Amino acid sequence: MLPTYLPILIMMVVAAALAAGLMLGSWLLGKVRGSRTELMPYECGLDPMDEPFKRMSVRYYVVALLFLLFDVETLFMFPVAAVFRDKIRMGWGLFVYGELLLFLSILFIGYVYVWKKGALRWE
């Protein structure tokens, strides 16, 4: 059994040694001693206008998360659309269509709820 797994073991040891060697080489050769200008944040060739860690409104993150949520949920419709024609031939067409309408109605209710709560307003 050892001869079967010996090439895998050798490859893992070589990969670990290569990773460790590259990290060590980067640490030894890559020391940066930059000037104050080189270490400053770059903003289109101008001096920075604001502090680098400016506080942002929570609404920005809420809108981003809502976008991801609705976007990922909308991706659910593509597999359903891909198999819909085959499901019609097998007699499942009405069931799949009803499930898709149920999913879209839940998604729409969530969208209306978020809209009414004011999470999509930029104030």
Record the SSE blueprint.
Layout: H1 2-29, H2 36-39, H3 58-74, H4 77-89, H5 93-117
Describe the structure.
- The radius of gyration is 27 Å and the shape is flat.
- 0% of the residues are buried.
- It is an all-alpha fold.
- Helix 4 (77-89) runs antiparallel to helix 5.
- It contains 5 helices and no strands.
- The protein has helices at 2-29, 36-39, 58-74, 77-89, 93-117.
- The protein folds into 2 domains: 2-39; 58-117.
- Helices cover 71% and strands 0% of the residues.
Describe the largest sheet. none
Question: Which sequence of SSEs, written as H and E, runs from N to C?
Answer: HHHHH
Number of strands: 0
**Average residue pLDDT:** 81
Total helices: the number is: 5
Number of separate domains: 2
First-residue to last-residue Cα separation: 67 Å
From the spread of the alpha carbons, the general shape counts as flat
